[in-house]
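Worked problem 6 (solution included).
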Amino acid sequence: MPKRQHFSEMTTSKLRQATREYDREYTGPGLPGKPLTAADRALHRKARGRPIVGKGAKIVPVSIERDLLAKADAFAQQHKLKRSEMVARGLKLVMTSQV
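Solution. The predicted structure is:
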């Protein structure tokens, strides 16, 4: 089997012959594919963004002492939690305890 010549070493006519298959429109499986159906478009719209937990989320600016925030972030990272998840767990814990 002869060694294939690199594209940069081919003449224009050999390069044209070697790449002829890419001149035809691609009709096989995969992209470009059929247009999305309405159901598929709805599924893709629904999949965008963060997943909704409960009734969704609301951004709430809260002031926290810097040292406490640093300790909380370190704890969250160590336990593979997001800061918001840790705050939500803490709020639930406080609300369910007898304070």
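Discussion: DSSP finds four helices and no strands in the chain.
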